[in-house]
Write a structure and sequence with these properties.
about 230 residues, Rossmann fold, alpha/beta, Alpha-Beta Plaits, guanosine tetraphosphate binding, 2 domains, 10 strands
């Protein structure tokens, strides 16, 4: 199951966006570290299905080195995410500095290589600004302009999620030998098994579907995995 993690500078509106997307009541306040622990909810993304949405603590500039380890533990969902939603206060005069601060923390917690979609929040505080999706040269959504408070642009965000997540799925048929029980358990933990059956030779056949980020991560951990692809 894909995991989408909200990240962003403190007070960018992550929890407000989380509430808007999940109809949850996560505490949203204009103060440092208003969200202390990651909060997880399931959302339904068209053509993708059930997706885990994770809210996290707000980032700050110049994260002290003695807090890096604590952040790594707190932001476990971020480090294992299929996609990051980098929520940005588009009305903040320090927008570029805030983006750089978040990117710096992502590097510190070894999450800077995870695919990212920028969410330019608070367009309701900008003059005559309408929701839109910005795309790169390959027509891939890279930035969504919206207001979490008013709800403007939320449908565009879901559209962008569909495009980003549906194109980042690994779908494989595998044959696992009897001794690969631990690997089979990993697929169950990831809720990646679409179909499973027993072969006459004692091996286990299965069809797995999972975010390509998780597939690549698993391939690095389980070096024999690619040998089991049919």
């Amino acid at each position: 199951m894909p995991t989408v993690s909200l990240v962003g500078y403190t007070n960018a509106g992550k929890s407000t966006l989380f509430n808007r997307m999940t109809s949850a009541e996560v505490y949203a306040a204009d103060q440092l570290f208003a969200t202390l622990d990651p909060t997880l909810r399931r959302i339904d993304v068209a053509d993708v299905g059930d997706t885990v949405l994770a809210d996290t603590v707000g980032f700050i500039r110049h994260l002290p080195h003695d807090l890096v380890a604590a952040f790594k533990a707190t932001l476990q969902e971020t480090r294992q995410a299929s996609l990051l939603l980098h929520v940005i206060d588009a009305a903040d005069s320090r927008v570029d500095e805030n983006i750089e601060a978040v990117n710096s923390v992502l590097t510190e917690i070894e999450s800077d290589e995870i695919p990212t979609l920028l969410v330019m929040n608070k367009i309701d505080m900008l003059d005559d600004f309408v929701p839109r999706i910005d795309r790169n040269d390959e027509n891939l959504p890279i930035r969504v302009w919206l207001s979490a408070v008013s709800g403007e642009g939320i449908p565009l965000l879901y559209q962008a999620l569909t495009e980003r997540l549906s194109g980042e799925i690994a779908h494989h048929e595998l044959r696992l030998p009897p001794q690969a029980g631990r690997l089979r358990s990993r697929f169950y933990q990831l809720q990646a098994i679409e179909k499973e059956w027993n072969e006459e030779d004692g091996s286990i056949g299965m069809v797995v579907r999972m975010p390509i980020v998780e597939w690549r991560r698993l391939c690095k951990q389980e070096h024999d995995l690619i040998n089991f692809i049919v």
